[in-house]
Amino acid sequence: MGKRILITGGAGFIGSHLSEKLLNEGNEVIVVDNFFTGRKKNIEHLLSNTNFELIRHDIIDELRIEVDQIYNMACPASPVHYQYNAISTVKTNVLGMINMLGLAKRTKSRILQASTSEVYGNPLEHPQKETYWGNVNTIGIRSCYDEGKRISETLCFDYHRQHQVDIRVIRIFNTYGPNMNPDDGRVVSNFIVQALKNQNITMFGDGSQTRSFCYVDDLVNGIVAMMNKEDFLGPVNLGNSDEFTVKALAEKIIELTNSKSKIEYRPLPSDDPLMRRPDLTLAQEKLNYKFNYPLVDGLKKTISYFEKEIK
Ligand code: NAD
Ligand code: UDP
Hints:
Helix content is about 40%, strand content about 15%.
């Protein structure tokens, strides 16, 4: 028997892939989204499925529905969008989180929180393990998101200790793939769209900062495994541990798209982490988590998505 599953932020990039997977596994899926960065287009093909329901709603406001599981994915993830209305980002992470934990408490459902590698800030430990407490600026331009996600983790664990809410917390590292908005503003989508249009590639800083990029299918498998794991609350890192400089990413994308684009250097935004790579030992031990897509394979799939998207 399938479950009735709520996915907040289900019209966004990751949420839309998750919706599809959980429907295919025979569940009922209810997507709640305020369409700030999400798009109906991402879930349009699911609308005719009788097991699928879409509700336009902002999780900052209370929600009363009956569900068995909650994936709390709602929150803009691109710096451009989470900084556009920083106060709203904080509200989503604090009030939205409280509302979703309250819903989980009332319905006795399990709730999974999509936290982030940003809780490690500009890390002084490399690669990052779950035991690392992070190096985060409380008052900078990224704080609405980084500190927002940190307090949402705190809320999860306090609701668990105080009200026995059944929580799961994952820390997602840079993930990319189809269904990203061409205007998303994150590095993989920006570089691919620029390369396909033969426009300059906007490199922030000298491009020596590193990230570890995960293809969305790998991540979604890890998310569902964590939701259904007994006796393990997390937090657990999920991603891909192959680390690249942003410059190497640009060069790879130019090569794969056969682009005439040139690199244009721009100032590095403040508090931009210089390096990031997940230690995935815990995910491997607890969830048998493995990533299957090397960067080039994931990029090829993402490039063919954007080729159709921006035609
Ligand atoms: P996204 O911006 O594509 O999706 C976020 C979705 O949440 C959108 O559909 C948006 O409209 C919706 N949303 C935002 N605020 C809302 C609110 N208050 N009420 C209802 N809906 C709201 O981003 P994504 O990459 O799919 O990220 C999904 C989640 O995963 C986010 O919580 C993000 O912080 C987390 N995450 C993502 C990454 C990544 O690399 N993609 C990394 C770390 C964490
Ligand atoms: N970046 C870049 N050009 C862009 C967008 C991003 O050089 O057009 C850089 C950004 O400064 C950061 C890295 O790429 O160092 C990853 O940025 P993204 O916004 O994708 O994610 P995050 O910084 O949150 O990891």
